[in-house]
Amino acid sequence: MELPPKTCSIERLVTREQDVQKVLSGVKTATRRGGRYADPGELWMLQGVQFRVTSVYPQKLGDMTDADARREGFSTVAEYMDYLNGVHPGSGFSPAMGMWVHDFERVARMG
Prior knowledge:
The protein contains three helices and four strands. It is α+β, with helices and mostly antiparallel strands and 111 residues long.
């Protein structure tokens, strides 16, 4: 699939302290954004730790599974949606809303 141009820089992919800590601890291995922030294979740093984006693809919120929510660092889709609505009150997140999923992994240190 050919991806559209990025709408934001990768440095803005994970910024909320709660999410940063989930990424650093390995609990969060994906994030959804309203735009595309990274290309597959792109690297970025979080508090001195390097991560690689492994895939980027569109998904409607209504197509999320609890397994997807766990990659976001939540137990269920309902818990994830509560988080989204708390962070962005009044945004009206609906099952039909499209998001860009960014999957990533910690880059192993050499030596």
